[in-house]
UniProtKB/TrEMBL annotation:
It comes from Paenalcaligenes hermetiae. It catalyses: (3S)-3-hydroxy-3-methylglutaryl-CoA = acetoacetate + acetyl-CoA. Keywords: Lyase, Metal-binding. Pathway: Metabolic intermediate metabolism; (S)-3-hydroxy-3-methylglutaryl-CoA degradation; acetoacetate from (S)-3-hydroxy-3-methylglutaryl-CoA: step 1/1. This is hydroxymethylglutaryl-CoA lyase. Belongs to the HMG-CoA lyase family.
Length: 301
């Protein structure tokens, strides 16, 4: 078993982390969060989501957020784009990367983006073409890859089918998302290996929610089969509006603590992440969901 020596972490707190917050988080707080995350050294930060404000009101200020952040030249600032309208807004906001987001479950696709999987691919096709024409990086997220809150188990073949259809659109990075955190390590490893029969391992990302406490174990399992991109959210912020009971993403501080402890390079400054996790938790009035974040914060008091 040879583990990757370097891992890219895509920090999703400002998007996935905040999108489900009941009270509107001020634009200035979102901007400061992203600036703090940039300073901690991320290569990729999800900064906005150009979706319908009726569906996800928390993300309605994407244009202002993108205009207000201080951009670190080495960082890719991404935005979710469900359709051409979202793409045009993302392009105008100078997103470095756009994310089309589908699902490996019919029911979740309907609940999340109001269309079937097949219809979603048709809707994504012009977005993908526009991104390629504009020279904007194109990423795709596949929700419910390890299970769906409505349809139960997800078959590996269904995930592969969606990956293949997204690959045909020219997608450059594939986020295999455990939206409700039901995956377990051996299943995760099998799924990642299966996806890698279609696309290079370097283009596969693991996006794990920690609802059942499996996220770090799933990351380790994915690392062991060669995955080297993971998504996480500082303070473990998050939840999905269309997945009842889903908790946040795996906490960035926990992932970085584990990876650095294994001698794996992330380019991230853990003390700064701990401070940022404590800061955003105070801003939204919630305790952190990061075990490592809490322990390191208290140790330094
Ligand atoms: C996809 C749609 C738009 C279809 O929504 P729809 O209702 O089927 O489509 P529509 O075209 O009829 O649009 C409805 C309304 O939204 C407007 N609209 C339409 N598009 C846009 C746009 N881009 N920006 C702003 N407004 C837009 C449009 O103008 C219209 O406004 P109205 O006429 O009613 O006033 C809707 O279902 C939607 O916005 N869904 C977003 C859902 C979402 O953001 N979910 C969370 C992100 S995915 C996620 O978190 C999972 C992930 C990625 O983290 C991985 C994982 O863990 O699973």
């Amino acid at each position: 078993m040879s583990l990757p020596t370097t891992v890219k972490i895509v920090e999703v707190a400002a998007r996935d982390g905040l999108q489900n917050e009941k009270h509107f988080v001020d634009t200035a707080i979102k901007i400061e969060l992203i600036n703090r995350l940039s300073a901690a050294g991320f290569q990729n930060i999800e900064a906005a989501s150009f979706v319908s404000p009726k569906w996800v009101p928390q993300m309605a200020d994407g244009t202002e957020v993108m205009a207000g952040i201080e951009r670190r030249p080495q960082t890719i600032y991404s935005a979710l784009t469900p359709n051409l309208r979202g793409f045009e807004a993302a392009l105008a906001a100078k997103a470095d990367e756009v994310v089309i987001f589908g699902a490996a479950s019919e029911s979740f696709s309907q609940k999340n983006i109001n269309c079937s999987i097949a219809e979603s691919i048709t809707r994504f096709a012009p977005v993908a073409q526009a991104a390629l024409d504009a020279g904007v990086r194109l990423r795709a997220s596949i929700s419910c890859a390890l299970g769906c809150p409505y349809d139960g188990e997800t078959a590996i073949e269904t995930v592969l089918d969606v990956v293949k259809r997204m690959q045909d659109l020219g997608v450059q990075e594939f986020d295999i998302a455990d939206t409700i955190g039901v995956g377990t390590p051996l299943k995760t490893a099998r799924l990642m290996e299966a996806v890698a029969t279609l696309v290079p391992m370097e283009q596969i990302a693991g996006h794990f929610h920690d609802t059942y406490g499996q996220a770090l174990a799933n990351i380790l399992a994915a690392l062991q089969v060669g995955v080297s991109i993971f998504h996480s959210s500082v303070a473990g912020l998050g939840g999905c509006p269309y997945a009842k009971g889903a908790t946040g993403n795996v906490a960035t501080e926990d992932v970085v603590y584990m990876l650095h402890g294994m001698g794996i390079h992330t380019g991230l400054d853990l003390p700064q992440l701990v401070d940022t996790g404590a800061w955003i938790s105070a801003q939204i009035g919630k305790p952190t969901n990061s075990r490592a974040g809490r322990a390191l914060f208290l140790k330094n008091q």
